[in-house]
Design brief:
single chain; 15 strands; seven-stranded mixed sheet; Metallo-beta-lactamase, Chain A; alpha/beta
Amino acid sequence: MNSTIRIGDITIHRIVEKQYGFAPAREFLPTLTAEVLEENRAWLGAALDAADRLVLCFQSYVVRTPHHTVLVDSCIGNDKERPTRLGWHRKTDTAFIDGLAAVGLGVEDIDIVMCTHLHGDHVGWNTRLENGRWVPTFPRARYLFSARELDYWSGEHTRSPLVAMEDSVLPIVAARRADLITSDHALNDHVRLLPTPGHTPDHFAVRLGHGRDDAVITGDLLHSPLQARIPELSMGSDFNPALAALTRRSFLERYCDTPTLCCTAHFPAPSVGHLKRWGNGFRCEATA
């Protein structure tokens, strides 16, 4: 299920941790009606299972540039307390580490970890459990967090403890491995950020390519192909659903009918394609 894409002088590896029917479509997308779901059922294919659950892929992208090896989002992680999330709770499989090894990488080869936002399935492998303590998984890496995003979730954590902050974010800060950035930060001439707020307060997408956007990694701007077809469908846990919808349509308009490769965080395999207009919405046409 993992794949490798080469564009110009960068290489992108998809590292898949899990793919499964995650949640009922109409619970995940609260404004989705039964009628609209039925109208779109035929083309959704592998993105909708037999029980009408949205099939989501949980994955990271490793980007190799002439300068750095960058991990964008660190998936779910092992040994994490996630009792409300089917398939995440106290997970112990080796899929993620095996995926890195399959493309010739170990945890020591990652220079930069970029988290598009600080939800649990995008920060999980930031840390690993060692002798009862959460320590950085990637021993050489600097971890790039949006300063606004970290400030917001740190405040929420103070008011009501958040397990992902406790086990996957704050240990990185305590280890002095975090670099706080803005959501329009440029790492170098191959990796630049694009502010895409709404799903979380300072969510960002990641633009890749030397002097142009050869590819873009969406983060949670999109979860399902249904949201490309109907950008106004926001998920129930979006920080600001109305802003998320506006940001999503703006992003889709920006990259529609361009050569830019769209690398989605959660679309089922192959997860990557080119954005095309489809009536009043869009579709992601898989690459060959």
